[in-house]
Amino acid sequence: DGAFSRVPSHWKGMFLSELIAFEKGKKYKGCESGDGAIPVLSIKDYRNLDSDTDTYTKDEKAVIAKTDEVVIVSDGANSGELVYGRSGAIGPNLILAKQKSDLLHEDYLFYLLRALQLQSYAKGEFIKHLSVKDIEHIYVYLPPFEEQEKMVEYMYKIEGAIAGIEESFGVVLPKFEEYLNAIISEIVTGKYNFKQ
User: Fold this and answer.
1) Helices (H), ranges, 48-144
2) Main-chain phi, psi angles of 69, to 5 degrees
3) CA 95 → CA 87, 146, 195, distances in Å?
4) What is the tens place of the pLDDT at every residue in 35-61?
């Protein structure tokens, strides 16, 4: 159905909830930075990776994201956007996406979610909202693990080439981002053959 209308027959169909554990962030009681304090992350913190967060908590039940884990923006104009690169307790407008199945390559998780364009699943007329329930019930097709590894390697090469071109021009080129998104979508939906 949709983007996955003609996937290779050896790919396995399943719900995202079978592959990924999603956990919504929450609001925390604040505290001073220092001993035992955990930074509380918002979308602002992910946008500015070089600055320190200004909010901390000591909540033992905090939803903690590691630097390499994918976080999804759940509310507002950026609902469905994927972010990563910070470690800390995620706030109430974010959802942590953690690999929970050995069938899913850790790095493929990001590309799969990116190809799904989660923004399109956000609901709300004025303020968009994306819930864990909405995401968990998305049905996808998953290639075998070895193919995922090849796909990830290929996507790393493409991203590296685009980054190199942008660096040499000294500017981020939106058309390259569109091109990269199109390639990721084609790969994740089975349009390229990585079986051999």
Assistant:
1) 108-115, 132-136
2) -90, 145
3) 14, 28, 33
4) 889 999 999 988 887 888 889 999 999
The number of residues making up the chain comes to 196
From residue 190, give the alpha-carbon distance in Å to each of 23, 65, 184, 195: 28, 30, 10, 10
145-148-153-158 Cα dihedral, nearest 10 degrees: 180
195: nearest Cα among 159, 154, 146, 127? 146
Which of 189, 190, 194 has its CA nearest to residue 157? 194
Contact 114, 82 (CB under 8 A): yes
Residues sharing a CB contact under 8 Å with residue 16, sequence separation 6 or more, in sequence order: 22, 135, 136, 137, 138, 139, 140
> pLDDT tens, 106-119?
999 999 999 999 99
Distance CA 26, CA 176 (A): 35
Taking CA atoms, 37 is separated from 25, 59, 67, 69, in Å, by 17, 9, 17, 20
Number of Cβ within a 10 Å radius of residue 56 = 20
pTM of the shown model: 0.87
Residues 6+ apart with CB under 8 A from 139: 1, 4, 13, 14, 15, 16
Helix (H, G, I), strand (E, B) or coil at 132: helix
